Amino acid sequence: MSMSTPLKRIPVSIWALGVVSMFMDISSEMIHSLLPLFLVGPLGASTFVVGLIEGLAESTALIAKVFSGTLSDYLGKRKALAVFGYSLGALTKPLFAIAPTAGIVFTARLLDRVGKGVRGAPRDALVADLAPPEMCGTAYGFFNLVSGIAMLMASAAAGLLWDRFGASFTFYAGAIFAALTLMGLVLKARRQQH
């Protein structure tokens, strides 16, 4: 049996969700991997402030994930919650490029992590709903593969862009991938309406 056969059997909806997720992962990694340098350098924040921002942001994502998972089960609106989470994450990305202070970065980071927390559990449950029962492991493996590829690509690109063009350009480039995420969600919604 060919190694590509299991991937070919993954439903189109899961492929589409994987691509959307990949664009968001690239966007996030391009921005967040360089955010501490941006805060300490151009914005002049202390390392304590950087740690505080990152700690509160990640805690926010984890707390939001608990509530969104429960809400997803209760309402059965997995797709709506996932779309809301992706949209919130995408809309915050340009704020990093124009942030004049650490306070704006903090606000954008919290909103972005709320988006991540809101979309995480419903998206995973949606993958389980969409995947044939015998292919759940393959579907989740595909998502992990996509995420890994995104992180490698984004880290390399972010480092090169930062060295060549600086922070704002790199963050705008990350925001473009976030815009692609929104475009993907809109196109998918329109196709399902027709």
Describe the structure.
There is one protein chain. This protein is mainly alpha-helical. Helices cover 86% and strands 0% of the residues. It is built from eight helices and no strands. The chain starts with a helix and ends with a helix. 37% of the residues are buried. The model has no long low-confidence stretch (mean pLDDT 86).
CATH topology: Growth Hormone, Chain: A
Helix/strand-derived category reads: mainly alpha
Series of secondary-structure elements, N-terminal to C-terminal: HHHHHHHH
Radius of gyration of CA atoms, rounded to a whole number = 17 Å
The coarse overall form would be globular
Instruction: Give the second-level CATH assignment, the architecture.
Output: Up-down Bundle
* Major sheet size, sense and barrel closure: none
The CATH homologous superfamily is named MFS general substrate transporter like domains
Number of domains: 1
Mean pLDDT: 86
Tell me roughly what share of residues is in helical segments: over 70%
Number of helices, counting only DSSP H or I runs of 4 residues or more: 8
CATH classification, class level: Mainly Alpha
Measured between the Cα atoms of the first and last residue, the distance is 37 Å
Q: Please count the beta strands (DSSP E, at least 2 residues each).
A: 0
Q: Give the uncertain stretches in residue-range form.
A: none
Q: Could you tell me the strand content as a percent range?
A: under 5%
